[in-house]
Design brief:
By secondary structure, the protein is an alpha/beta fold. It has 14 helices and 19 strands. Strands 1, 4, 5, 6, 7 and 8 form a six-stranded mixed beta sheet that branches. It has a five-stranded parallel beta sheet with strand order 12-11-10-13-14, with helices on both faces. The longest helix is centred in the middle third of the chain and has 14 residues.
C-alpha cells in the first residue's frame, strides 16, 4: 500500500491530550479565559475560535501549532508564508478585549486555560500579546484590494463579505501561542459520523490502498453539476488511469445567510454514497471545522493545505471556488494554481514553489445540462487571456445556485437532471427541524448556542 503525501511542512500536528490525569495536572491553577465568538454588527455570531483551535490541534492546519504572533501575521500578509517559509494564506488570531487581559493579569509567558461554555477545553501558552492594527485596514490587507491586487480582485470588500467582516470585527488584542486540547470533545450527531481528522483520514486511505485521492471542497448540498465535477476530476487526476477515490470535505461552521445548513450539507453528500451514485470504496464524506472566509484563491490555498494534511493527492477547483458575490474574478483560483498571484507575494503556483504544497490541482470550469446532447456537458475554462471552447456546440442550460434555491424555497422538487431526489429529501428533513432550508440569523444563533460538540467536565 502507498502512503499519502507528506503533511504540509513535513510534520503532522497533533496537540491533543487524551490522558485525563495528565490533563488535570496540566491545567491545575491556570487562569481561565472563556472562548468568545466574533459577532457581526447585529450581535450574531459569525465565528467561534473553538473551531480554529480544533483544526489547529488536530493537524488540519499543519504545520501551524497555535495562534499567530505579529511577525507571523505580517509575513502572511506580505507573501502568504509563515516566517519559516511554508505557504499559509490567512492570519489565525485569538482576539480579546484589552480590559479582560488587564483584569485577569495575563502576561507573556503565561499559560491560560481556555474554557468553552464554561468547561475546560484547551490551553494557550502565550508567547506574545500584541495589538491589532485598524481592523478595516487589516481586513483589506487579508483579502486584497483592486488597487493592489487587480489581477483577481474586482471590487473593494465590505461588510457584505462574510470573511472580510470576521477580520473587521475582531477585538483589539491578540494572544499568540501554541494551543493544546486538554479535554477532547464528543461530537453530536450527525457530525460524529464525518469527523475524520488527518491522522485518521491518512490511515483510512492507507487501509483502502488508495493512491490517487481527489479532494472536493464543499459548503453546499450536491447537485448534479457538483457530482459531474467530482466524477470528471476523478477520471483525469490519475493520468494514465482514473483516480481511486473522492474525498469530500465539508467546511462546518458559521456561514453566510442563504447557505445550506451544515447538517444538510453533510447528509446530502452522504446520500450520494448511500444511494449508490458513488461506490463506498471510491468515495468518503468528511468535515473540517472552520468559519469560512469565502476567500476564493486564498481559501483554495487553505483547502489545499487541509486536504494534503488529510492525505489527498489532488484537489479539484471549479468556477467561483469558495466565493461569495463578485469581489474576485470567477477564475481567481485557477489563476493562482496555474500562474501564481505575484501581488500577494505568490510568484509561482502553490504546488510549484519552494515550501509550497505537494497536492496537485485539477482545474475545471462549469458543467451544464445540454438538452440536445441529453447529458451534462463541459463549458470550459475562461480566465485572463486563456479561453477554452465548450465540449459541445449547442446551448446548454446553466442552473444557478440562486435559481435552485428559489425552486426549493417554493417547495418544488428539482428535476432529477438537476438534483438527486435523495439529496432533496435530506434538505426537506432539516428544513423541518429548523423551519427553513437555509442559514438564517435564527440558525446561526442556535448553532452558537449548541455548537457541533459537547465538552464534559475534566
Amino acid at each position: 500500500m502507498s502512503a499519502p503525501l507528506e503533511p504540509h511542512g513535513g510534520h503532522l500536528v497533533y496537540n491533543v491530550i487524551e490522558d485525563r490525569d495528565r490533563a488535570r495536572s496540566m491545567i491545575a491553577g491556570l487562569t481561565k479565559l472563556e472562548i468568545e465568538p466574533t459577532l457581526d454588527p447585529d450581535g450574531t455570531s459569525i465565528r467561534n475560535p473553538y473551531r480554529e483551535i480544533m483544526s489547529i490541534a488536530y493537524g488540519f492546519f499543519s504545520p501551524v501549532e497555535g495562534f499567530m504572533t505579529r511577525e507571523e501575521v505580517e509575513s502572511i500578509l506580505r507573501e502568504r508564508r509563515l516566517p519559516n517559509g511554508w505557504l499559509f494564506p490567512f492570519p489565525l488570531i485569538f482576539d480579546v478585549d484589552e480590559d479582560k487581559v488587564k483584569a485577569l493579569g495575563i502576561k507573556e509567558g503565561d499559560t491560560v486555560l481556555l474554557t468553552l461554555k464554561g468547561k475546560p477545553f484547551a490551553t494557550l501558552k502565550i508567547t506574545e500579546i500584541w495589538k491589532l492594527p485598524d481592523r478595516k485596514e487589516f481586513a483589506d490587507a487579508v483579502f486584497g484590494t483592486p488597487e493592489k491586487n487587480g489581477e483577481v480582485v474586482k471590487k473593494r470588500f465590505d461588510e457584505k463579505h462574510p470573511g472580510w467582516l470576521i477580520y473587521r470585527m475582531l477585538r483589539p488584542i491578540a494572544l499568540a501561542g501554541k494551543v493544546t486540547i486538554v479535554n477532547p470533545p464528543r461530537f453530536k450527531e450527525p457530525y460524529s459520523r464525518f469527523w475524520m481528522p488527518p491522522n485518521v483520514s491518512r490511515e483510512y486511505i492507507r487501509q483502502k490502498g488508495w493512491k490517487i485521492v481527489v479532494a472536493h471542497q464543499t459548503r453546499n448540498v450536491p447537485h448534479i453539476g457538483h457530482e459531474m465535477l467530482m466524477k470528471m476530476a476523478l477520471f483525469v487526476s490519475g493520468g494514465e488511469r482514473p483516480g481511486d477515490a473522492v474525498l469530500v470535505n465539508a467546511i462546518i461552521g458559521a456561514k453566510r445567510r442563504g447557505d445550506y445548513v451544515d447538517e444538510a450539507i453533510l447528509e446530502g453528500h452522504e446520500a450520494l454514497n448511500k444511494a449508490g451514485y458513488f461506490h463506498r470504496d471510491r468515495h468518503v464524506v468528511t468535515m473540517t471545522l472552520w468559519d469560512m472566509r469565502y476567500g476564493n484563491p486564498l481559501e483554495s490555498l487553505l483547502h489545499g493545505i487541509i486536504r494534503q494534511n488529510m492525505g489527498a493527492t489532488h484537489h479539484m477547483f471549479g468556477r467561483d471556488h469558495a466565493a461569495v458575490g463578485d469581489y474576485y474574478d470567477p477564475y481567481a483560483t485557477q489563476i493562482l494554481w496555474t500562474r501564481g498571484l505575484p501581488s500577494y507575494g505568490i510568484n509561482e503556483p502553490p504546488h510549484m514553489t519552494d515550501k509550497g504544497l505537494k497536492i496537485r490541482p485539477v482545474n475545471l470550469g462549469e458543467f451544464a445540462y445540454c438538452p440536445k446532447c441529453g447529458s451534462y456537458t463541459y463549458l470550459g475554462l475562461s480566465y485572463g487571456d486563456y479561453r477554452e471552447p465548450p465540449l459541445c456546440n449547442h446551448e446548454p442550460e446553466r442552473i444557478s445556485g440562486s435559481f435552485l434555491r428559489g425552486l426549493i424555497i417554493e417547495g418544488l422538487r428539482p428535476p432529477k437532471i438537476v438534483m438527486r431526489p435523495e439529496v432533496y429529501d435530506v434538505i426537506v428533513k432539516w428544513w423541518r427541524v429548523y423551519g427553513y432550508p437555509f442559514v438564517t440569523e435564527k440558525y446561526l444563533k442556535i448553532k452558537e448556542q449548541e455548537l457541533e460538540i459537547e465538552v464534559g467536565e475534566l
